[in-house]
Amino acid sequence: MPQFIPQHLICPLTKKMFVDPVKTVYGTVYERKAIEEHLKQHQYDPTAGPGHELEMSDIKADQDMKKMIEFCRRGRSEWIQKEDDSREMWWVLWVLAALLALVCTLDVGYFLRAAAVILRAWFQPPIRDITAEQIRTGRVTPRDIDMCHMNNARYLRECDFARFSLYMRNGVFKALRALKASMVVGATTIRYRRALCIGEGFELRSRIVTWDDKAFFLEQRFVSTKDGLVCAVMYCKQSVVRSSPDKIMQHLCKRKVECPEFPEDLQHWVNFISASSQALRAESGLDEKNK
Questions:
Q1: Non-local CB neighbours of 181 within 8 Å, separated by 6+ positions
Q2: Pairing mode of beta strands 182-192, 230-241
């Protein structure tokens, strides 16, 4: 909203606030340029009327009016500055509120780190062998621990990031985009052998072991850099949606690729998943509905 300007600070000719006020011998005040233009055509005071003659020599600078104008302009400037500061403060509050809502509703740290992992993998050398092992290094931080060792859930999160990096480097993500497919975790199992303590470094070794007609099967190992012990081993079933592992392999290798044999321990786990799935389908009556 514009600030109110007192009437006595407004020139009667220009209807605007004085910039260079002058006073006539009759005590009226005008803007210098405006009264000079008037006197070029009329030799009288425009407010007092034609009977009151006026010449250029009859006008003088009004120092008192100038001081009042400066005081008013200073107040207007401070008011405008306060308005700008208030507006900026509201913007800051809105941004902070939006960030707070974002942090409260989303796991922002997870998404930021996932983006950083993918970006870093983009600039790393590609892995030509689809079954080759990728090694990512890490260290247990205070945010990862409970009871001074790495929280069980943190192992699974670290495995997520390692798979993102692996799929970027071996081309699986690129093939998924080309085939308009996606992947989801269908099942995981993890065995903890020894705790990773706070400050301890580790290597996370990830590789695609084999695949079937619906999913890739990966092994991910946490190996301590302190003594080389395998502290945890995880198997992950990464199911392919709207495509198949065979099509992804053909896209990457430009030929049909035979899948490696299932290791015995992995096959036992796959059999368990299959049996569990059948039992759950029977329990929910899905088998009867499909008949």
A1: 175, 240, 241, 242, 243, 247, 248
A2: antiparallel
Does residue 139 share a domain with residue 31?
no
Rounded to 5°, angle at Cα 142 from 100 and 191? 110
User: Under the phi-then-psi rule, with left for phi > 0, alpha for psi from -120 to 50, and beta for the rest, what region is 228?
Assistant: left
- Is residue 141 domain-shared with residue 232, that is, in the same domain? yes
Residues 142 and 80 in one domain: no
Question: What residue numbers bound the domain in which 95 lies?
Answer: 7-104
Q: Is residue 282 part of a domain?
A: no
Q: Rounded to two decimals, what is the model's pTM?
A: 0.69
Q: What is the pLDDT of residues 182-240, one digit of tens each?
A: 999 999 999 999 999 999 999 999 999 999 999 999 999 999 999 999 999 999 999 99
Domain holding 158: CATH number?
3.10.129.10
In this prediction, residue 1 carries a pLDDT of 42
CA–CA gap between residue 135 and residue 234 (Å, rounded): 15
The stretches in the chain having pLDDT less than 70 are 1-4, 76-84, 286-291
Q: What is the CATH number of the domain that holds 23?
A: 3.30.40.10
> CB within 8 A of 183, min separation 6: which ones?
167, 172, 176, 216, 238, 239, 240, 241
